[in-house]
Amino acid sequence: MVPFPMQITRLFEFDSGHRIPNHNSKCRNMHGHRYKLELTLSGRILETPNQSHEGMVLDFADVKRLALDFLDTLDHAFLVWQDDHQLIDFLKTTDSKYIIVPTIPTVENLVKFIDENLQPAFAKTYNDSLSIKSIKLWETPNCFAQITHK
Ligand SMILES: [Zn+2]
Q1: Domain of residue 75, residue span
Q2: 28 alpha carbon – ligand 1 mean position (Å)
Q3: 66 CA from centroid of ligand 1 (Å)
Q4: What residues are annotated to the active site?
Q5: How does DSSP assign the chain, residue by residue?
Q6: Would 1 be classed as within a structural domain?
Q7: Ligand 1 mean position to 40 CA, how many Å?
Q8: How far apart are the first and last CA of the chain?
């Protein structure tokens, strides 16, 4: 796909729990974060006259709706690594919401996991007019990981 020069970004926030089971310090404990996510889309400005989205890459309301379809599954959920059997066994005994993730839920792996889930949703709906340019995921006010596409 030809890269588009225009980028739009929407911010999201969600609360999730996790732990880094092999970490040599406090991150091995179960704890939570208020994650902040910056989703940047790259696309062309739509020019169909007299349409609601004329002059936009994508209506921010549509960005929100599509992204929240997935991000809401993470909100107030415990994000547990698929090989963290001790914790999965425990979570099964509770009525708490949890999501099993394929890799250790560091912020790097989580931004990759989110990207892998958001890409198909946006590609399916807007394949030839826009694409996800980057996703930045803040784990704390000072630390984030970012995945960027060409
Ligand atoms: Zn943490």
Answers
A1: 6-148
A2: 8
A3: 26
A4: 27, 76, 139
A5: -PPPSEEEEEEEEEEEEE--TT-SSGGGS-EEEEEEEEEEEEEPPP--TT-TTTT-SS-HHHHHHHHHHHHHHHTTEEEEETT-HHHHHHHHTS---EEEESS---HHHHHHHHHHHHHHHHHHHHTTTEEEEEEEEEEETTEEEEEE--
A6: no
A7: 24
A8: 10
Task: Output the CA 119–ligand 1 centroid distance in Å.
Answer: 25
Residuewise pLDDT in 10s, the chain (150 residues): 556 789 999 999 999 999 999 988 999 999 999 999 999 999 989 888 998 988 999 999 999 999 999 999 999 999 999 999 999 999 999 999 999 999 999 999 999 999 999 999 988 887 778 899 999 999 999 999 999 998
The edge-to-edge listing of strands for the beta sheet with 77-81 is: 98-101, 77-81, 6-18, 31-43, 130-140, 143-148
Residue 8 CA to ligand 1 centre (angstroms) = 28
Q: Is residue 10 part of a domain?
A: yes
The predicted model scores a pTM of 0.93
Count of structural domains within the chain: 1
